[in-house]
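At this stage, I wrote out one protein's amino acid sequence and its backbone structure tokens, and that material follows here:
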Amino acid sequence: MKCGNGRTKSVKMEQKTPVPGPIFYFSILGKDSKSRARAGCLSTACGKIDTPAFIPDATLASVKHLTAQEVAATGIQIVLGNLYHLWLRPGSEIISQAGGLHKFMNWPGPIVTDSGGFQVYSLIHKGRLGGKIRERGAFFNSHLDGARKVLTPEESIRMQYQMGSDILLTLDESVPATAPRTYFERSVPLTVRWAARSKAQFLKLNTTKDRLLFGIVQGGIFPDLLAKSAKETVAIGFDGYALGGVAVGLEKTKLHEVIGHSVAHLPEDKPRYMLGIGYPKEILRAVSEGVDLFDCVIPTRNARHASLFTRQGRLNLRKKEFAADFRPIEAGCSCLACQNYSRAYLRHLFSVGQPLAFRLATIHNLTFYASLMKDIRQAIKRGNFSSFARRASRF
């Protein structure tokens, strides 16, 4: 099996089923009769991903506070690297010299990298550092030293490929969902043109056919533009499709409605990836619309703020009520934190500012998310996802 920059690498992550035929395939293994939810398996050169799956952010080539081995122990199968930040530090050349992201961060499983589109949104649409969008690409200044940067679709793909990503994303303009329609009318065609350029560059580089490229659908909250973006992106042809922008500035009550307008025009036999949503209730609703992959900072960021997810609801371990609570974070949880430490101990660590608190809380939250996704897959295969989702909405 070849990972990263095409170098042979042994993968120790568990393979429950043999990989049939080609390196890449997406199989649907079960469907819910009362929704669009489906369970499946996406195979890559660096291992398989059981879907629906959650992808934690390894923004700077690490999931904050954890080693790659600790992340894998939670049940997580795939992580996300951030092109923009890795481009600035340490640079795609250094990562390539290390043997690609897999070897650089010692992560054996699949890696997806974003295209830099969301950082373009952060730097330009939030009015930071003088950014501009042009046909050629995105022009902005580095948030580190103010140096002028240009990110084109071709360069985004080149750097993602150079870093050894298994799943690459096309460069898009990630527009806030609350932007006026007139802006989306200009932006959606631009994102489609960038997608075509991204694919052309990808085809030049991917001669060994050991990577995947996902196109990104935009359109804000406008059904006709979402449909237009989906149809035109599908016409270009990608290995999977990501839904971008709808999680940026959109009221969560409208998320369910908006997702459907895009998914309805995406091929059934390709994976669908929702960018940037991460609360369990949001994931459950998106799964019901047929989404397969999710990434977000929610479980890791919340962990650093003493907010822990359980099947009974979230716990804020900074509260005084946990000072003498010697139960585990969640009874029955198999994670290192729950098996060895109490709520009182974690509260103490947070109270005195000990970094171990961040590590243990992150381990628990990622274990919770991996377990939740496993339960979702099982519920879909059993045919009772809808009832499971109603019960799990309190998570």
In short: The CA atoms of residues 115 and 350 lie 35 Å apart.
